Amino acid sequence: MGESAPAASRLAEEFAYRLHDPGDVSKLKTLGWLEGKYAFSDAVAVRAAVRGWYDAVFDATDRYPPTSSATRRPTSRCARRCSPSATATST
């Protein structure tokens, strides 16, 4: 009946160092991707992909003040905005 393709994933690391005075690490970002596909039939298929990142430069260095690091981190607001919701009404 249904057929699924193997899941694909990637992991990448980005690093940046500021050479200008003062020299310091300015990016230490880890990125991840995960995707998969499931075919219910020849006409219907579902593809899902998820990606995420974490920039550790705010925790690894003391270059950025706490207010700067707090505004650049992902918050739970994105989870509420991005997640589907359903409402039910009664008659």
Fold and architecture overview:
The chain is of the alpha+beta class. The chain has a domain at 3-61. The protein is 20% helix and 47% strand. The protein is built from 3 helices and 3 strands; from the N terminus they run E-E-E-H-H-H. It has helices at residues 57-60, 66-72, 76-82, and strands at 3-18, 24-39, 45-55. The protein has a 3-stranded antiparallel β-sheet with strand order 1-2-3. The longest helix is centred in the last third of the chain and has 7 residues, at 66-72. It is rod-shaped and about 60 Å long.
Helix content: 10-25%
Total helical segments: 3
How would you sum up the major sheet?
3 strands, antiparallel
Task: Describe the global form.
Answer: rod-shaped
How far apart the termini lie comes to: 39 Å
Query: What is the alpha-carbon Rg in Å?
Result: 20 Å
Q: Mean pLDDT, nearest integer?
A: 76
- What order do the helices and strands follow? EEEHHH
User: What portion of the residues fall into strands of 2 or more residues?
Assistant: over 45%
SSE class: alpha+beta
Low-pLDDT segments: 75-91
Gist of the model:
With 91 residues, the chain is of the alpha+beta class. Helix content is 20%, strand content 47%.
